[in-house]
TrEMBL record:
It catalyses: 2 a phenolic donor + H2O2 = 2 a phenolic radical donor + 2 H2O. This is Peroxidase. Its cofactor is heme b; Ca(2+). The record marks R56 as: Transition state stabilizer.
Length: 326
């Protein structure tokens, strides 16, 4: 699929992000963030895996057209939207975002953007999973375009340098990339994303030698050798120890050769990134601080503000022509 980056001039990006502000809804919808936090709390108590789902959704949204909620748009007969692009087939949590939006529309119609809902809900879920609670600037507007052809994201089998080319294009440093991949401290991956490492790594007929042999045996039993699509594609935790907790254990697992995805293990094998892996593995608080900074930065990517875009009435569809959004 075509790689399309909309790299605006730096002065324009700075102007856009400057228009985001803390407590943006203090006069128009003062309870907006409280409503989001309450719904995330209720959801998390029923399904703690929602944290990983929201982290992935947030990343997949921001890295395509910026943080504009374009990932939420439903496809139509005339347009295949981002949601149905290959890399987004296993993204989930759309119904939950719709639930939050419904409640906010009841309290403050046409006011809170779907883009801000994703960002705030992700922050709240991270805090509930043991991570820090951090302030986020709001005021994002929802995008008016969602096209599957725009979706080109770093895949799970890339090398560090290949993955970094995606992050560098979005203005991130290598350390920030290693930090953001630390979101794999929670969540799972389908066997289809790493089965090649278990049986026939790069055509060798053998498992990936960079993976712990005990883990290889465990995952071989879980996944099976067949690469053909099945009704049920099993999943494995990306962090084999503290699987539902946002902490630095992911990096310890990588140093033990227990990274599940090829890109995860590559972080611990590549000379350019292993220093950051070691740093975060020994300094949990340092990782969390760096993670917060990187998440806030990601949440500002190519945002729409002011009169750009719209405030969608429903997150899955664009407003009808002529619909007045504040």
């Amino acid at each position: 699929m075509a790689l399309r980056y909309f790299l605006l001039p730096f002065f324009f990006l700075s102007l856009a992000t400057a228009q985001l502000s803390f407590n943006f809804y203090r006069s128009t919808c003062p309870n907006a963030e409280f409503i989001i936090k309450t719904l995330v709390f209720n959801k998390f108590n029923k399904d703690p895996s929602i944290t990983a789902a929201l982290l992935r959704m947030h990343f997949h949204d921001c890295f395509v057209r910026g943080c504009d909620a374009s990932i939420l748009i439903n496809s139509t007969s005339n347009n295949q939207a981002e949601k149905d692009a290959g890399p987004n087939e296993t993204v989930r949590g759309y119904e939950f975002i719709d639930e939050i939006k419904t409640q906010l529309e009841k309290k403050c119609p046409n006011t809170v953007s779907c883009a801000d809902i994703i960002t705030a809900a992700t922050r709240d879920a991270v805090a509930l999973s043991g991570g820090p609670s951090y302030p986020i600037p709001t005021g994002r507007r929802d995008g008016l375009i969602s096209n599957a052809n725009d979706v080109n994201l770093p895949g799970p089998s890339l090398s560090v340098s290949q993955a970094f080319s995606f992050f560098r294009a979005k203005g991130f440093t290598l350390k920030e990339m290693v930090t953001l991949l630390g979101a794999h401290t929670v969540g799972v991956a389908h066997c289809g994303f790493f089965r090649g490492r278990l049986f026939n790594f790069q055509g060798t007929g053998k498992p990936d030698p960079s993976m712990d042999t005990a883990l290889v045996s465990k995952l071989q039993k879980l996944c099976g050798s067949s690469s053909l699509p099945t009704v049920r594609d099993p999943t494995a935790f990306l962090d084999q120890n503290t699987s539902f907790r946002v902490d630095n254990e992911f990096y310890n697992q990588v140093l033990k050769k227990r990274g599940i995805l090829q890109i995860d293990q590559a972080l611990g094998n590549d000379r350019s990134s292993v220093g950051f892996v070691r740093q975060f593995s020994s300094d949990g608080n340092g990782f969390l601080k760096t993670f917060v900074d990187a998440m806030v930065k990601m949440g500002k990517l190519e945002v729409l503000v002011g009169n750009a875009g719209e405030i969608r009435k429903k997150c899955g569809v664009f407003n009808s022509p002529g619909f007045a959004s504040m």
